Amino acid sequence: ESLAAARAADRAFDRWARTNTHPHRHPGYISAVISLKPDGGIPGDATAAQMDRIADLADRFSFGEIRITHMQNIVLGHVRQDQLHALWQELRAVGLATANIGLIGDIIACPGLDYCSLANARSIPIAQKLSARFASPELQETIGDLQIKISGCINACGHHHAGHIGILGVDKKGEEFFQLTLGGSAGNDAAVGQILGPALPEDATVDAIARLVDAYLVHRNTGERFLDTYRRLGAALFKDAVYAVA
């Protein structure tokens, strides 16, 4: 079965192939990214059964090679294009076929206060709530390239400073708050995100992110990423979206 024919016949597979694969230098091969970011799930988490299946699939489809990325995902680097659909079917059977690489659902988060004694706040619940809020594949594709990164303390294990939207957990008199930064990037256009304003309580953070995204969708130019829109318009528009709430 050719890759083009499989994509034409299966809309869900086509979406996954569009977001979760990269070109390979060798003709007839492709690099496949397994997202460990299921809707509402814990970023980078996998069950023992899923890990066993990934190992089996690496042997069958990628010469036994598995790569773990700093984005908390897994790459099978050498998949034959005519076997990609079969790989996707196997991944879907064990809940590993989420199509969100590079999109708003592809969140990086450190373990946070749930598991780390250095943390000031819990990262995982915020990541799960954001993932559930933006779970729609159609919405994620509409939003496009938007990287959210969450750290539970200033040690920045979640790379919050390099996120298009960064979220830093802070402690305020024993309560968990979250400071937002905008404009960070770890790409060729590298930049450190700038603090948007006062830290927010946990129960206000997800809604604030949603308002940031809404402002971006309203004011972006055609084909413009969140990062591009932020750099073009500056912080004031987004600051108003977060803090100027009646």
TrEMBL record:
Gene Ontology MF, one: metal ion binding
Nitrite/Sulfite reductase ferredoxin-like domain residues: 42-94
Q: Which residues form the signal peptide?
A: none
Which segments constitute the Nitrite/sulphite reductase 4Fe-4S domain? Answer: 146-242
Family matches, as InterPro entries:
NIR_SIR_4Fe-4S (IPR051329), NiRdtase/SiRdtase_haem-b_fer (IPR005117), Nit/Sulf_reduc_fer-like_dom_sf (IPR036136), NO2/SO3_Rdtase_4Fe4S_dom (IPR006067), NO2/SO3_Rdtase_4Fe4S_sf (IPR045854)
Keyword Transcription assigned: no
Q: Transferase as a keyword?
A: no
Q: Which UniProt keywords apply?
A: 4Fe-4S, Heme, Iron, Iron-sulfur, Metal-binding, Oxidoreductase
Q: What is this protein called?
A: Nitrite/sulfite reductase
What is the organism field in this record? Nguyenibacter vanlangensis
